[in-house]
Design a protein that fits this description.
By secondary structure, the chain is mostly helical. It has one domain. It is built from 5 helices and no strands.
């Protein structure tokens, strides 16, 4: 129920630096949500995809927390899914 709200918020935010702190909050919430899901939950892969795609934001305020979440969440997600996302471009 919370995930669609967070995804919509992240999608609708402008790509300006003034919204970096909002993006940070949204991606941190998404990452923390992923930590509490079973590793086989189908919602995990889209969360990881959103987190990884947010790394393209040219802001340390956004990238650093996302990387920390991905590192900590790696116990509940398949690292292969992250690598597939990176290689899909």
């Amino acid at each position: 129920m919370l995930l669609p709200i967070l995804e919509q918020t992240l999608t609708n935010l402008p790509d300006t630096g003034s919204y970096d702190i909002v993006k940070q909050g949204v991606v941190v919430l998404m990452g923390n949500l992923a930590k509490h899901l079973d590793k086989d939950d189908p919602r995990v892969k889209p969360i990881v995809a959103k987190l990884v795609s947010s790394l393209s934001t040219p802001s340390q305020q956004v990238c650093h927390p996302v990387l920390m979440i991905l590192i900590h969440a790696s116990g509940c997600v398949h690292l292969q899914a992250v690598l597939q996302f990176y290689t899909s471009f």
